């Protein structure tokens, strides 16, 4: 059931129509300098926008056939996807491609017009370090728990998780755990909300939440809420709408979302939206962007804000899509 948020002023309402129009307009700004500066995020941006539209209840607001055409135009013979046509293949853009195709039920197009699911799975599997279990982002070898989570996300959606050494990957995540219950980018690194999400979500996909110290982690995550209701990513940092997803999704996975003030967080997210032109920013009064828009809306969905579709806290996709793809 949708939650009621008693402390919200009446003027704080989600500007759904404006947000839909904002997302639809993003690919029409090709005469703007910023459009070309962000080409390296094009496929990720499509995933962010499409996810937001699905959660807003407007899954058909972007043309399906053109979406499929663009995604497949980014694929390499290796099976991996680049951020845009002509860009090198990378784990992050490959994960976004898989998520997009899953959301719009287009895996059959990947088989008939693309390189096929098996080739995508092979590309991802080849990025695993078989000694440590973790994953690189691309052929140049940078390793990060973001890439490990991305691999688990995409491979599980493709039904190909058995292509990689899950146990070694899980052991690597366990080595990234800290005394405060959180996780860092690598063993010994500082706990950070973004890395906590990647590690806890990967462990959830692997069925190994038993390795998570839920009480200690829940305390660390709940302490990320600061005056004004927003969440930060680590101690002594400013609040940011994107952590409405990274922190809250992790709390949802371990069953601790009730440890924060939900009404205050909802109000903070809504104060960051542009109710006239659409979009959500990192903080009230700042410029909006599609990154903060999707994670603000996803956070509101986790908080069961009325009118939004349920989001999957592990995959950051609509639950309707993951339920169908994963056979839940």
Automatic annotation (TrEMBL):
A single cellular component GO annotation: Rab-protein geranylgeranyltransferase complex
Enzyme Commission number(s): 2.5.1.60
Keywords recorded for this protein, A-Z: Metal-binding, Prenyltransferase, Repeat, Transferase, Zinc
Enzyme class, UniProt record, top EC level: transferase
Catalyzed chemical reaction(s): geranylgeranyl diphosphate + L-cysteinyl-[protein] = S-geranylgeranyl-L-cysteinyl-[protein] + diphosphate
Prenyltransferase alpha-alpha toroid domain sequence ranges: 14-317
A Pfam family of this chain: Prenyltrans
UniProt remark on cofactor binding: Binds 1 zinc ion per subunit.
Function: Catalyzes the transfer of a geranylgeranyl moiety from geranylgeranyl diphosphate to both cysteines of proteins with the C-terminal sequence -XXCC, -XCXC and -CCXX.
UniProt-recorded name of the protein: Geranylgeranyl transferase type-2 subunit beta
